[in-house]
Structures are given as C-alpha cells and as structure tokens.
Amino acid sequence: MAIIKPFKAIRPRKDLVHLVASRSMDFYSKEELQKEISSNEFSYLQIIKPEDKTGTIKNSSVEHYKKCKQRYLDFKEKNILQEDEKESFYVYQQISGNYSSTGIIGLASIDDYFNKTIKIHEQTLLNKEKALKDYLKICDIHAEPIILAYQPQQKIASLIAEIVHSEPEYNFTSVDGISHQLWIIDNEKNIATIVETFKKTPALYIADGHHRSASSALLGAELRDEKSYKGNEPFNYFLCIFFPFNQLKIYDYSKLAKDLSGMRTDIFLSKLGDCFKITKKGKKAYVPSMQRHIGMYIEENWYELIPKEGLEIDSDPVNSLDASILYDYIIIPTLRIEDFRRDKRIAFTGGSNNIAEIEKRVNSGEMKIGFCLHPITIEQLTRIADMNKTMPPKSTWIEPKLRSGMVVYELNIGE
Questions:
Q1: pLDDT band at 363 (very low <50, low <70, confident <90, very high)
Q2: pTM for the whole structure
C-alpha cells in the first residue's frame, strides 16, 4: 500500500514560471551556469547558487546552505514564489520532440521508504546522503521532485486524460525546446480518487532521485529522534512525481575512459578478442539494437562487440546485465578501472544525445574510448528492485528530467 498526499505548493507566478524553472545544476557547464545566473534574476539557480562576494564560502557548507535559504525567502518576499491556498495534487506534462510524459506531483511517505514499498535499484553514497540531508535541514525545502514509477492504473489514467483537456495553469517552452504544462487538482473527489487508488498500489520504484530519497528518509529519522512527532509533520514526506511505467523513457548510460591503461590500441583489441567477437563498423555510429551487443568507439571508428559462446555470464538478473558484462570483462580487467564512483579515468554520459557526446569527447582527445549499450527494460529494473538487488553504477538514464523550482514543498522543520 503506497501512501501519497496532496500539499500546498510554493510556485512561481504564472508570468514568471518560464524564467524561474531551471534545469538541475548538473546539466549546466560552468560557463552556462554563470551566464544564466548573470542574465536571469528570476532563475531558481539564484537560490541554488547564491552570490558569494567574498569568494570564501564553500559549496555544501552550512554558510552556503544558509545563503540558499535566504535567497529562497527573498523570492517569497518579492512574490516571485507564492503559496497555493489549498492542498492539491498537480498534473505535469513534458513534451520533447515526439515523446510526451505525464505524471502527478505529490508527496510520498518516508515510512514507505523504510518499509520498502518504495523500492530502489541503485546504491547510494553515505557522504552524499548526509550532504543532501544537511541541505534539506537548513534550507527547509524540496524543489526538485523525485521520480517514482508505478504500474499503470486505469482510474488514474482516466482522471489525467480528463484534466489535460482543460486549460493548464502553466504552459511554456524552455530554451531547449521542451514543452512544459502544469494543471492543479484541488477538487476533493479527484484528490480522494488518487489517494485511494495509490493505497492499492503495492510498490513504487525510484526512477530518478535515489540520493534525494535516502537523504529525505535520513532527515526524517533524525527529526523523529529530536522531536516528539505524530507522523503527519511535513518532514515525514518528500516531494515526488509519480509516472506510470509507460510514461518513462529509459536510455543507456554510456561509459568513457581516458586511456587504455598503457596499452596500444592493437594490443587492447587483441585482448578484447579473447572474450568478444569484434566487428569494425567504421565511421557510422553503431547503436546496439539488442541486449548482449556492445558498441565501442575508438580512434574515430565504431566497433560491435558480442560475447563469444562459452563466455561465463551469470544468470543472476544483475550479473547478466550488459552493464555488468562491460564492467566484468572490459572495464575492470582490461582497463583496470575498479572504483567506478571515484576513479577520474572513467566518465558517463546518458540520454538521447549520448552517441554524439561519445564521439565529441573521444574525437577531442578528452577521452580515449567510449562504450554504449542497449537500454535495460522497465521489467528488468522492477525485477531487480523487487529482489532487493542493485544495478552497477550508472546503469540507467531515465527521462523526463524535471525542472527545479517549478513546484516547491516546504518542510517547516522549525515549526
């Protein structure tokens, strides 16, 4: 049984939402970030990356978080951000090219995280969990919804279909050509339908936001120890968007390496030939059309790698993933990269543009070699999560990616 709740969102004024809503910090280069901050006084990045005239405040420090909180309060004071009068759910739709995704924004319970109704498929880093927990505790807000996936429900689908035919509260196109719409659900009957339907949903799956989910649960547990609580305090919930499986797009998370661990290219290819059938594809990009096929780009040429018969591949749902095969037979033993989370010789790129990004970074000399895989399926993801197992690092890139600051949830910790 999944518990979800409506809430009073803090949202940008309708005439400013296209200026306020920003991509996640990770999607900006240093130059793009500085340009956006200097040219757009309404960008939510002004809150995430507040000005430090002294140049002495470190990111992820208490001082930095306090400046973030103050900038957020400034935005509220100036009525750039305003609070809704009624507790509501919110339907959000994103259209990118020919693909659209529609989900419901609301709150999930940290108790569902603890009891594993909310399921994970990715390991988290404790130091990152703690840093995000400290950010939440000081800033007192969630501003980027965690994506939770669920088995499609006809009642929810019918309700959403009815709502999206009405006039949206927000309707704008961001500079990257992606269209964004938002509708408010404040009708008590519709709210009850959503709540009761999700009560019959046995599991929710984290599609994006493992660290943010973990840090929200960590903060909630800490505050429960510090305060007497009834269970309905805001810190017992975190901001999410709920997408049915069929509204998510899973892409490969490609891997790149800076060098061949001291080997010449011909020696490297010879070593790969022990385990893989190698076919040179030339200049035209090779994108695997099925699992157990790996694309490799090196010295401006693409290659197809297929495991040879007799190669020992475990039937375990994690160990048999293409990402596991890549790590177990190429990246670890041949490229000698074992710490995927800290080794600076390895890099990752994902999404619909990952092939072009591989070619760009290898051709520039920044990276020596790149690998692409066939994306995993939602069935693989849910099976692994249901078994309480986790995938190798950076196994999935899931879209849509939501904007920060379009909908904000206040934790009200000090109250």
A1: very high
A2: 0.91
